[in-house]
Amino acid sequence: MAKSTFPSLISVFLTLLFFTTVAVAKNHHSFSRTLSPQKLGLKKEKLSHLHFYFHDIVSGRNPTAIRVAEANTTNTSRSLFGSVFMMDDPLTTGPEQISKLVGRAQGIYASASQSELGFLMVLNYVFLEGKYNGSTLSILGHNAVFSGMREMPIVGGSGLFRFARGYAQARTHEVDLKSGDAVVEYNVYVLHY
Ligand SMILES: *[C@@H]1O[C@H](CO)[C@@H](O)[C@H](O)[C@H]1NC(C)=O
Ligand SMILES: *[C@@H]1O[C@H](CO)[C@@H](O)[C@H](O)[C@H]1NC(C)=O
Ligand SMILES: *[C@@H]1O[C@H](CO)[C@@H](O)[C@H](O)[C@H]1NC(C)=O
């Protein structure tokens, strides 16, 4: 009796050891787990409305948007197809350039339409004011600049805007057709925690 239980105890031990090893190995290799939103301090999702003016200055000594690339056919295209601009445009509370700065729109707009002036917008609103200072919202959208109202998706955010989603509505407030400088009014609706 004792003779036969001994090997079986060993096999139980080895089996246990095997499964423990497998479990440890599995733990070691796992890179994801489920987490409750409370653990990240997430409480209730809220909706915020932001309102500001965007200043796109392409002329003069201190442009805030510059053309960084183009195709060899861009200049003969009615829609400037293929041109790529890098912007660092001020965002202010009022339409005047000297009104209070709340952030900057940093990123790229590029002419992506051959039939109309339609930009691919890839940018971050980098906020600099109040509780939003240091937080960002990311926009990825289509901007047909000669349309009355344009809508662009908010695809994410950081800081106070973690888990953000929503949309930005743009309406041209003022445009100087000679210089190309423009002031655009933005209403942004964003869900975040
Ligand atoms: C533009 O570049 C392409 C490729 O290098 C060339 O085939 C074409 O002829 C150029 N077009 C013009 C208008 O210069
Ligand atoms: C297109 O026009 C811009 C602005 O006038 C000029 O800087 C650029 O050199 C031109 N590019 C080509 C490929 O002709
Ligand atoms: C925003 O944050 C930066 C970095 O923390 C700080 O230097 C700056 O003074 C802040 N701006 C405002 C308006 O609070």
UniProtKB/TrEMBL annotation:
Residues 1-25 form the signal peptide. One of its GO terms (cellular component) is apoplast. It holds the Pfam family Dirigent. One of its GO terms (biological process) is phenylpropanoid biosynthetic process. It is found in: Secreted, Extracellular space, Apoplast. Keywords: Apoplast, Secreted, Signal. It comes from the Eukaryota. This is Dirigent protein. The gene is LOC107434400.
